[in-house]
Batch of 2 targets.
Target 1
Amino acid sequence: MRFDTSTFPIVWLYAADNLPDDEISDFAKFERLLDRRESLVFITHHTFCSCDSSNANFTRRKIEWLRRRRPQLQSQVKALKQIEPDARKRRDAIGFARQFFTFWGYPLLMVGDEIDAVGLAMELLTGEVSHREGKRCFH
């Protein structure tokens, strides 16, 4: 996973092209962001609406890392915005978004485009969230 922090506190996440995830490096990047002790929002086009628990060691490391960092995650990470243009796929992601929140401690919010993702990120960071019916999918 590549973390683009050039627009911090909005952090863009990109899947590494043709490379396997390097969870040690990803956790180190994540920790550096949390060590800033500032609120942030993740935005990505990457699909997180699936669970792969085939690697038990990775799952165990992730859970141990989460236990240590949960208070920071809950207070600093306002949300992960996943950009999904397909309205049906956004609706289908609701169940996973609940699991995501339970596991990570911050919400996964589905949006239709980058403009909506950045707009909602700014609202969350400033505390001025508007709940427009049908426009955004809050989980």
Target 2
Amino acid sequence: MNKFIFTFFLALICSVGFAQITNPDSLKQALKIATTDSARHNACVELYFYYVEVNRDSALLYAEKRLELAKQNNNKLAEAFALTSKSYQYTNMGKFAASYQNLLLALRIAEDPNSKEKNGWRLAQFPIPGKGRLILLSNVHQFLGTLMRSTENPKQEVLQFKEALRIARQVNHIDRQRSANMTLAGAYLRMNQLVMKPKPLESLNHFTIPVAIILLSY
């Protein structure tokens, strides 16, 4: 029953996260008529998120286009963003070594405080101005956790999800916190060692409520 509850809320959150899907034809047209590299990059970001779970080859194609544009403009954070997108697809395709190599490259960039945002370049599905590097760093750890789950390394899985959550809280990024909370709860359930305790009700917010329900029903 507990696993069912977790799966239900994870599916619910995913459906909310992808609710604002745009017609791909309009996105491709936006890419075609874009006059700046930042606009081309951002159109590719939208196309990537359109295809992210429905066509991995197409998602990889647009991640590669983003990476090429980022490198041409010496935009290191946009480069790291593209690398994390590629790693996610590789993990889901079972190409774990390629995923890990892309994440290591992205981590090196995202950990460097000298990596600066460039105006007009999107760095997250749900960006916060001025917080791009840390949001990206949280995302890298999130994807490392996902990779560790896929390669059956539960201790590293938990460590990576905890770090993703810590950074997401630091920048008050609701979506990143929600994702990290849910995957961390799933990791504990799989380990059959759910050691987290529910927070006091007054401290709960909309992204921790699903986890609290799981914990209280365990």
